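sry for the spam today, last one i promise. struct tokens for design, 293 residues
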């Protein structure tokens, strides 16, 4: 399905931002391949929309083609409780996947509880935290590259790193995970512990898109961006409808009337202040879509 001038705000966790010039939901892999080839032929930019969990869309929207992996084809899921192998399409909801495998007694990704988004998006950014990363359990991914060709990558070829991969441009379509048989009761308790920790340390329940900045490497050690922002006396800082969370300084919380410009302006203040106070240049974790970029 193709939609022109398609509003994107309701498709993101922040619930703000403009429209996509073209929003396309391919029915299957063949349709996806064709769309990518056509976009390449016309030099049309291509972006991939998952659940919009860590996405900020500019107020005036985005140009080019936005591909949404929404629909039955992109939510296929197969699990094997004996071998521990899981094969899932990129549009599978990560929280629902975690609940499914935990219920089937498969361990390995329960530490990702509380992380929103699709599996494909999680793999692309190697989502995770103190309890592990998705890349720890991926054995292979299949994607359609920027030329429209289907390619398969092993874990080593994916090149997982902190909040990223070495994958080329393209659209992830299928992911294989290797999990381990375990006691479902123990796994459920683990999920409860992880969620309890996050409720204590993060603004769960407020309008946010997760961590705004990546934790930087300083002296060979990765340190908390939230702590740096807190030490720069920025908790509670506000611009328009955007506020730095009092609960966790690396989260931006939105309020009624908030715009994308409010958020980008506030993040610029944070970036400047942390550089001034600590001499450290922060790198964005929040993905920002703007026209011409």
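last one done:
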């Amino acid at each position: 399905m193709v939609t022109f001038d398609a509003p994107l705000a309701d498709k993101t966790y922040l619930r703000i931002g403009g429209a996509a010039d073209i929003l396309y939901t391919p029915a299957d892999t063949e349709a996806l391949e064709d769309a990518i080839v056509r976009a390449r032929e016309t030099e049309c930019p291509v972006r991939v929309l998952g659940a919009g969990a860590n996405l900020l869309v500019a107020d005036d929207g985005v140009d080019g083609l936005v591909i949404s992996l929404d629909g039955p084809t992109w939510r296929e899921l197969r699990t094997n409780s004996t071998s521990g192998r899981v094969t899932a399409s990129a549009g599978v909801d990560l929280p629902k996947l975690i609940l499914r495998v935990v219920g089937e007694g498969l361990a390995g990704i329960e530490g990702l509880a509380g992380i929103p988004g699709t599996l494909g998006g999680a793999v692309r950014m190697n989502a995770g935290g103190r309890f592990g990363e998705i890349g720890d359990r991926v054995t292979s991914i299949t994607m359609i590259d920027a030329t429209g060709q289907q390619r398969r990558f092993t874990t080593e070829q994916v090149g997982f790193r902190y909040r990223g991969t070495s994958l080329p441009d393209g659209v992830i379509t299928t992911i294989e995970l290797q999990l381990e048989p375990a006691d479902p009761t123990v796994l459920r308790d683990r999920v409860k512990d992880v969620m309890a920790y996050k409720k204590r340390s993060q603004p769960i329940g407020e309008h946010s898109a997760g961590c705004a900045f990546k934790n930087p490497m300083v002296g060979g050690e990765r340190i908390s961006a939230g702590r740096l922002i807190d030490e720069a006396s920025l908790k509670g800082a506000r611009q328009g409808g955007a506020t730095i969370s009092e609960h966790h300084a690396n989260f931006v919380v939105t309020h009624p009337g908030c715009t994308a410009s409010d958020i980008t302006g506030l993040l610029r203040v944070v970036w400047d202040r942390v550089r001034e106070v600590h001499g450290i240049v922060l790198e964005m974790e929040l993905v920002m879509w703007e026209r011409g970029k």
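Residues 260-278 form the longest helix (19 residues). ok im logging off now
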